[in-house]
Every structure is written in C-alpha cells, then in structure tokens.
Design goal:
The complex is a heterotrimer of chains A (472), B (124) and C (417). Chain B is built from four helices and nine strands, in the order βββαβββββααβα. Chain B is an alpha+beta fold and 124 residues long. In chain B, a hairpin with a 4-residue loop joins strand 1 and strand 2. Chain C is an alpha/beta fold and 417 residues long. Classes of the chains: A alpha/beta (472), B alpha+beta (124), C alpha/beta (417). At the A-C interface, helix 1, helix 2, helix 3, helix 4 and helix 5 of A face helix 1, helix 2, helix 3, helix 4 and helix 5 of C.
Chain lengths: 472, 124, 417
C-alpha cells in the first residue's frame, strides 16, 4: 500500500526561508513544508489505481436505502464545467451573473412546483444543513410570537440527523414509537403533542419505505396545536409528480439534491440542499434571496427577519446546476422517475419476500426494509460482506434501528429488470449459503483484496494521518 | 462494608466510607462490545438518580451511563480516557467510572441485589 | 435520453409478479395525490445542452482582482480527469470499506495534507465550507468547555461572521467582546479579511489565560505554503476553506471546509474521520473510524448533525497538492504574493493610499482618490473586477498567480484615467 507521500524518496521538510526571497519578516514564515514532490505520471497512476479499488453506480447496483443511488447523467458533468458557470466569481455584480441568477431562480420555481410549497432557499449545502436551518427558523418564528416552545417530536424510525439537529438548536427531542404498520399511531401522537412542541419532523415516505397513512390527521392535529410540521424529504424519489408535501399539510420540507435530483455522491459529497417553506415562514429564510425584477434577476439582502446565513456565499451552485439540468431533461414527465422507483422497489421486494422476513405487511414505496433475523444474529452483516464477493454493493444494514437485522434496500428507477433479478438471485443464494456453510460466510468477503478490517484497532490505536519520518 | 448493588440500566454501585464507586456490569460491557471511548463528567457535577452522567462509545454504538442515586461526582477514572478497554477487561475493578458522594442514600433501597440482578439478566 | 431502463414488457411482468394491475396501486393515499406538474416539456440531451449553454452565455467572466473568501487560482488538468472517473464520482460514503479503499485512502491523504499545512495533529474528512467549519469549531469549543461565549477578532471575513452568528443563535451561544471565564473560544482569521498577517501568539496566550480554546480560521489555504503554520502559535483548532486548492470558483460553491485539532480534541471532532488499520490477514486498509461520535449513532447526543462531507472536493484538493508538490505550491504562493505586491506598489504610485499596517499575503486594502464605486465601475468597463468595495473609497484587492503583468498594467491604467 503506497501513500502519495511515499512517492518522494527525497521528501524533506526543510524550506530555507532564503529561497522564498519575499519581503516577509522571518518570524511570520515557515521553515518546513513536508509535502512530497510527485511527477504527473505518478500522480495519475496513483489516483487511477486508487479509483479501481472503489465501487460506484457506474459499476453496478448500489441499493442503499434512503440514499437514492440513481445513475448520475454524464451530460450534467459537462454542463457544470461550462466556463460561463464554473469561472464565475461569487462577488461579480448582478449584471455579470444574469445567467447564473436565472438558473437559480428557475430551479427555485421548479422545486416549489414539485413540492407544492410557497418559498424556497437553495443555500444549504446538504439535507442535514436544511434541517438545521429549518429548526433555527422555527425557533425564531416562535420567539417572535412570544411562544417559548422547547420540544421537537421525532418518530423512532427517523434518520439520526433529525434528533442531532434538534439538539444543535437546544430543543428537547421527544420520540414517538411507530406501530406495526410503520405509521405514527394517533393516540401516541396526541399523548406527546402539548403546547411545548415547536416542530414535528416526519419523513414521508418514512425510512421503512412506507407512506405515512395517518398524515392528514397528524397535520390537522399539529396545525390546531400551533406546531410546525417539517418534512424530511430525503425520500422524495417516491413522490415526484405523485404527491406534493405542500398539499399534505407540511410547513417546511427539505430536499436532497444529491439523492432525488441525481447529483453525484462523489464518495460522500458534495451535496446540495433545498429548504421549501410556507409563505408565513418566508421572511426567516437566509439571505440573500434570489429574486426576479421586471427583466433582471438580483439578490435581495434586505430581509430583517432572516435567520442570517448558513453558507459563506449562496450554496453549492455546481450542484444546483446539475439538479436544474436533471429537472429540465425530465420536464413534465418527471413522474416517470417516481413511478418506476415504486415499481422497482415493489418488484424487488416481491422477489425477496420468501427469503427474508418482511417486518411490515404492506406495499412499499421506493424502498423497503427486510429482516434477516431468521438467519441468525449478525446475519445482516454477514450477508452484506458476502454480497461483495459477487461483485455487487450491499444494501444499508442495521438501519432503521427499530428493525432487527435490518436490510434497507432502495434500487431506484435506473436499475433494469435484469439487474433486479440478478440482485435477488444473489441474495437468495447467500441466504442458502448462510444455512449450509455459515462459517465460510461469516469470514467473507473472500474475493476482495481486503478482508474484514479491524475497526476496534482503528479506534484503539488511531492512525489518522501520515507522519513524516524525519523531525520537523 | 456494604454490598454491591445494581440498576436496571446495568450500572453497579458499591458504597465504602460513604462514597459510592460506580461502573457498568460485565453483562453491559459484553453487550457494548469493544469500547473505544468514554466521556466522563467533571468532578463537582451533580446528578439526580437516572440522569445521564457519562457516555461510553464502542465501535458501532454509543450508550448513556445513568446515575444510580442522587449525588455529586467526587472523582472520575481518568485512566479510561487513555485506556477505555479497561471497562471490557475489568468492569468491576480497574474499569470503575466515577465516585459519587450520595445526597439521598435511601435510594439504595430501590436498587437490586446481586441475586436480583443475576435473575434480571437471566443468569441463574 | 431516458434514464429508466424498464420497458413496457418488463413492466407487465413486474406488475404480475407483484400482483397488481398498475403502478397506481402503489402510490399511497389517493386523496394526497397531486395533479400534473406545471413543468416545461422534457428535453433531449441536445436541447438541454443548447439551453444550458445559452444560459451560461448570459454571464460575463471578467479578469479577477477579487478574493474575499473565493480565490481564482489555476487548477491543473489532471484533477478533473481523476474526479470524473466513475469509481470516484459515483461512489457513496465509504461505509463498506472493502469496496471503498479508493475513497478512504484519498481522504486519509487529505487529512494528512491538512495536518501538514496547518501543523495540527488530526483533521477530519472535510466540512461543507470554511464558514460552517468555523461555526462547528465554536459549537465544539462550547460543548467541550461547557461555556457559551465566543470572542471574535475584528479581522474575520464578514460573511463568515454572519454564518457564525446564525449557528450560535440556534445553539444559544453568545458572541461577546470580552475574553473571560465564560469564553469557550477566541477566533482569529489568518491572514485576516484585509490580508494582514499577524503573529497571533499574544491573542492565543490571552485565550489560554482565560482557559478558552484558540481557533484560527484560514480562508486562503495557499498562504500556508509560506506562512508560519497556525499550530506554531498556539492554535487548539484550525478551520478554514480549501477552495484555493484547485477547486473552481463556481459562483461560491461547492467549496471545501476543513477542521484540524490538537490530539486531545480528537474525539470532539465533528464529521467523518478515516483511519488506517489491518484486516484479519494483516493487510493494511482504511476505515471510517470513531463512528460513535456521528449523528446516526449518537442521535440527540451528537454535537453535530453533519452527514455529507465534501469528499469529491477533498479528493480534488488532494490531487492538486500531489500534482503541484511542495515546490509547485510554494511557487503559487510566491507568485500570488508577488503579483499582489507589484499591483500594490503601482497603485501607490498613482496616488492610492496603502492601509495595511501589517505585512500582507495576496490581499490588501487601499484608499482610492475617488469613490470606490467609480473605480470599480471604470474597471468593469474594461472587463476587470477590481476588488471589494469596503466603503469610504476603500477597496480590498486580491491577486493570484493567474494575474499576469498585462492584467496589472490594464488595472493601473484603467484607474488612472
């Protein structure tokens, strides 16, 4: 295993300040810079070889639940690199950035249409930052109304960002248990819905891949209680052109552009977030707002009730551009995305229903959760590791926390029937293997270059960066 | 000398000279798996019974440690910051977590004896 | 250009297997369904390219003499060719390390580079941008010391200050003008917003005396090729922006936040961290580590909710540093410094008043003989973005290695007309 630092045999730290013949006082300059000098051929070989140790959507199915690992259109990469967009500095005057401002404004319009909401910001860098912004806005909203509300209700199946965000804003998280159909039961909801509840955060469809059947009642109850209803829109891939959170009673909804709107995951980012709100919350949105005058687009900073800013400039423009292009390519046909996402998930679920346990006896939305507990403890882990031997990527395991030995599977609409059939047959095979030869499966993966890595050692003997061997 | 007592959340407390030594049980450390990090309270912090007073992180999980009886922290096991695995190796001795000065000693009556705890975790 | 591979024949077979008649049977509560979306008709790829290209042509790209948190450096060609590889571009967060060693190793290298540049002990896998990284540092300090004031030195980028204020208000942290026993951290930018380079040891000592953490914020990371690393003057936390390292200016995003700390704060770091370990046969490999800090495990006990980092940009920055190497990076810093100082001299010669009372790197403040709006306007007519208007005839001007001698000549002659 070679690190980039190992390519420079002559790597030294020493940088004699004389060589930097600048007029800077010596005490402000560094005397060491232990970075390697590497020729371009080695740079290319090093990173190309590294890339070949990765799995990506371009290689095969990547069925991680709630991540929406759909195909990332190549044309969007070209468009993001157009000079007129990538070379524009954020501080140019509006007269120089009309193309960019128009794109942002149009994307705002289309996302409002898709979600059925009144106003929007594209400033957050990711879904979790949208949640943070949403709760900060809620906090300010209640403060302005002289209401001190300290609680946020979150269902037990929620993504960890929901309660984490609630804590970041000093709210107290109240968890409500979902029922055997995966819904939030109304009686339990009423029990916790008191005058101290600021926000209810719901994911719809939820992380179990199920549409919330009590949604109308929940939104009515929240409304009469003066509580805001927040939709974690990570699962919007089930709803494009099918349902609008704005028509389902939500006051705020966030979108993950890197999930539903096809921007590439890049190994963990960058993403892009959109927070859409009802008009009564619009004044709290971050500045600047991108607005349209008679003929020109501009930035409006004059919003006295705004919570401020969450990004140093205006958000992840490069990702907004890709999301915009994606929406423009589908246009009014975009419901085809969600309809096929639902079809693919239900089809795959039906292929696996006699292999694993189905904790919720319902049709699923765009993803579904199975339990492999019938195959024993740690079976989800062992199945995931063995899937890699077949050249495929495992689904999400051990989430949501409320399902034992959970396998959360989201194929997305960009998988072919052959791909789904193949994935199901591999899972069937592995479940047989786990019964016939459990020891072999427990030691997988066998065909990858690395076996199971020692995560205890990684934490107990942390090695988190390269250290120069010479004294610096 | 008093006997060791147990909570439903798998903490133990052993009183000596009016100071309670507190840790988690062998059952708990097994459940958590390999412990990699401990967040300790500060000396002087006061907690009520069942307040979360420390956090133990294993490789894949994070658990709150709850205060067994009302009291004030008079000492913390700083060795755990460097060697959190002591809790796995020796949960009742070198893996102790805090020392508490109790403010409501009658609460000990609500806790389980060793026999009761063994039954509680199904080890009898 | 349809990204859905399911054919009508497939659909029939699939519906039959599921046991329903149409996809409509899958769509949940009928009364919550919406009508047809009011979106434009679909576009072919060719139409899309024409449309978006036309939009891009409504923008104008001037020559840049502006920084303020976004720096126009040259980005070597190798970067794009590497990051466009599908294995990097279309991979997810490396939760299954056996099939993610590419991403994991490149993040480990990024973490290493950040530590080498800043002089700190550990770094994480990146944060959204410099401003939110600074906010995370304030939250970290506050939760670590259980104090809820932060002190901000006056040279902080005003946009960063806005973001910090927003985060602090949510977390009920106060921005105070005192350094005392309530202060969780003292924040200073290096070089500061006005370009000034200052030895921050004195401020760091003040922080230490009050028992507070000292946070240095670096918005122009190429400066650390030649400047004393922040670790050397007592920083407990260094945060900032990595955009200067080969990441396109792209109208302000996506960018690359980073955070690096001293060893004792390791377990307080937000976000992802990659570590080196071995497998059951002793082979070396990388994994995400200290996972229990993160939101999916800690949930409401997490100190940060961050999930997505900026992995692909951390990879870009790593490749930039590899491709430039020590020598290349020093040359970029030297050139940026030199061009800025040449322009500075020439502006002095035509009557601009220099306002930096400390040495500066590649940004400086001058007072013009005319109102800043006029100066900037005459420059814009020559397709030059001349700087940031600080009010009262003052301009914040920036140069990088991308500014040629001709660019500088054109700037000076435009303001001298």
């Amino acid at each position: 295993m070679k690190l980039i630092f190992d390519y420079d045999e002559n790597i030294t730290g020493h940088v004699p300040s004389e060589s930097i013949d600048l007029d800077l006082p010596k005490h402000l300059m560094r005397s060491d810079l232990p970075l390697p000098n590497v020729n371009e051929v080695d740079v290319v070989r090093h990173y190309t070889n590294l890339s070949r140790k990765n799995f990506g959507i371009d290689l095969g199915i990547y069925p991680l639940g709630s991540c929406t690992m759909k195909y990332n259109p190549k044309v969007n990469e070209n468009l993001a690199r157009l000079n007129g967009f990538s070379q524009l500095h954020p501080l140019v005057p509006a007269s120089f950035s009309q193309g960019t401002l128009e794109l942002i404004w149009k994307l705002q319009q289309y996302l409002k249409e898709i979600t059925g909401m009144d106003e929007i910001t594209l400033q957050p860098a990711a879904g979790s930052q949208c949640e943070l912004l949403g709760l900060m806005m809620a906090k300010k909203y209640f403060k302005d109304r002289n209401e001190e509300r300290k609680k946020v209700i979150i269902p037990d199946y929620s993504h960890g960002t929901n309660p984490a965000t609630s804590s970041m804003c000093k709210f107290q998280t109240v968890t409500v248990q979902s029922d055997t159909r995966g819904n939030i039961p109304l009686n339990k909801f009423r029990d916790v819905l008191d005058s101290d509840v600021a926000v209810v955060m719901i994911t719809n469809p939820n992380t179990l891949g199920l549409f919330e059947e009590n949604l109308s009642e929940i939104s009515d109850l929240a409304r009469s209680n003066g509580t805001l209803l927040y939709c974690d829109g990570a699962n919007m891939n089930a709803l494009l052109g099918i349902g609008k959170p704005g028509e389902q009673g939500f006051d705020m909804v966030h979108l993950n552009l890197h999930k539903t709107f096809s921007t590439p995951h890049g190994g963990g980012g960058p993403g892009g977030g959109a927070l859409c709100v009802r008009s009564f919350l619009a004044d709290y949105l971050p500045v600047p707002r991108i607005v349209k005058g008679d003929e020109k687009f501009s930035m409006d900073y004059d919003k006295k009730k705004s919570v401020g800013k969450v990004h140093s400039f205006y958000g992840n423009f490069g990702m907004l551009l890709r999301a915009y292009s994606y929406i423009m390519s589908w246009g009014s046909n975009i419901s085809r995305v969600s309809k096929n996402a639902l079809l693919n998930a239900n089809y795959l679920q039906s292929l696996l229903s006699d292999v694993f346990e189905q904790p919720y006896n319902r049709k699923c939305a765009h993803e579904f959760v199975l339990s492999s507990k019938n195959l024993g403890a740690r079976s989800a882990m062992n199945i995931a590791k063995r899937i890699m031997d077949y050249g495929l990527h495992p689904p999400t395991i051990y989430f949501p926390l409320i399902v034992e030995e959970a396998l959360m599977i989201e194929p997305t609409e960009t998988e072919s029937k052959e791909s789904l059939d193949n994935f199901a047959s591999v899972l069937k095979k592995i479940s047989d293997e786990l019964v016939k030869d459990p020891d072999f499966i427990k030691k997988s993966p066998h065909t990858t270059k690395l076996g199971r890595l020692d995560e205890v050692k990684a934490a107990r003997e942390p090695n988190l960066r390269w250290l120069p061997k010479f004294k610096v | 000398m008093s006997e060791i007592q147990f909570t439903k959340e798998h903490e133990w407390i052993l009183m000596k000279d009016n100071i309670g030594l507190v840790g988690i049980t062998d059952f708990a450390q097994k459940q958590l798996g390999d412990i990699v990090s401990v967040e300790l309270p500060s000396v002087g912090n006061e907690f009520k019974q069942n307040d979360a007073m420390a956090i133990i992180d294993s490789v894949k999980a994070s658990s709150d440690i709850y205060c067994p009886i009302d009291g004030k922290v008079v000492a913390v096991n700083e060795e755990l910051l460097q060697s959190p695995e002591l809790i796995n190796k020796s949960p009742f001795e070198s893996g102790w977590i805090v020392k508490l000065e109790p403010s409501n000693i009658s609460q000990l009556e609500n806790l389980m004896t060793e026999e009761q705890y063994k039954k509680f975790v199904g080890e009898d | 250009m349809d990204y859905v591979p399911i054919t009508n024949k497939d659909q029939k077979e699939m519906l039959a297997k599921i046991g329903i008649n149409s996809i409509d049977d899958l769509v949940g509560d009928v009364k919550l369904r919406c009508g047809k979306l009011n979106l434009p008709p679909p576009m072919s790829e060719m139409e899309l390219v024409q449309h978006v290209t036309a939009l891009s042509e409504k923008n104008k790209i001037p020559r840049y003499f502006v920084g303020g948190g976004s720096y126009n450096h040259y980005s070597p060609a190798v970067i794009d060719h590497m990051v466009l590889r599908g294995e990097f571009l279309t991979a997810y967060t490396p939760y299954q390390p056996e099939v993610s060693q590419g991403t994991l190793q490149s993040i480990y290298e990024f973490q290493s580079y950040i530590c080498l540049l800043t002089g700190m002990d550990v770094s994480n896998a990146s944060l959204y941008d410099g401003a939110s990284a600074l906010a995370e540092a304030a939250l970290l300090s506050s939760s670590h010391l259980r104090r809820n004031h932060v002190f901000v030195s006056k040279g902080l980028n005003p946009r960063y200050l806005q973001v910090l204020k927003t985060y602090c208000e949510g977390a009920e942290i106060e921005i105070s003008d005192k350094i005392d026993e309530k202060t969780a951290c003292v924040i200073a930018q290096y070089p500061d917003f006005f370009g000034n380079i200052e030895d921050l040891q004195t401020l760091a000592d003040e922080a230490k005396k009050a028992g507070a953490l000292f946070v240095t914020c670096v918005t122009e990371l190429t400066s650390l090729a030649i400047l004393k690393p922040p670790a050397n003057f007592g920083s407990d936390i260094v945060v900032g922006e990595g955009q200067s390292l080969g990441i396109p200016i792209s109208y302000g995003g996506p960018y690359l936040g980073f955070i690096a700390v001293k060893q004792d704060l390791l377990k307080k770091l937000p976000g992802r961290i990659v570590g080196l370990t071995t497998d059951d046969k002793g082979n070396e490999g990388f994994v995400l580590t200290f996972r229990a800090r993160e939101q999916d495990i800690r949930r409401e006990r997490a100190t940060s909710n961050i999930t997505t980092n900026q992995a692909l940009l951390a990879l870009s920055a790593t490749i930039y540093l590899a491709a430039m190497g020590k020598d290349g990076l020093i040359n970029v810093a030297k050139a940026s410094y030199k061009q800025a100082h040449i322009l500075h001299e020439k502006l002095k010669e035509v009557g601009f008043e220099p306002l930096n009372d400390k040495p500066f790197y590649n940004e400086f403040v001058v007072k013009a003989t005319k109102p800043s709006e006029e100066i900037l306007s005459s420059l814009l007519k020559k397709n030059i973005l001349g700087g940031i208007n600080l009010g009262e005839n003052k301009l914040l001007v920036c140069c990088t290695e991308n500014n040629s001698a001709q660019d500088i000549e054109d700037y000076v002659s435009a303001v001298n007309e």
